[in-house]
Amino acid sequence: MLCPVCRNRTRLRVRKDTELINFPLFSKCKQEMLINAKNFETTLNEIENRI
């Protein structure tokens, strides 16, 4: 899965049948995001800095 902010790879992998609701995603760009994912489509809910 790619980070919605910086487009770098994350360590998270999803399958076609995976559903994520308000999932905390921590990326290499030091951003914490809440995402929803369903059928390989990802939507961004919130972004917080985690410096």
Automatic annotation (TrEMBL):
InterPro entries (UniProt xref): Cys_rich_KTR (IPR025957)
Xref: Pfam families: Cys_rich_KTR
The organism's place on the tree of life at top rank: Bacteria
Protein name: Conjugal transfer protein
Species, as recorded: Parablautia intestinalis
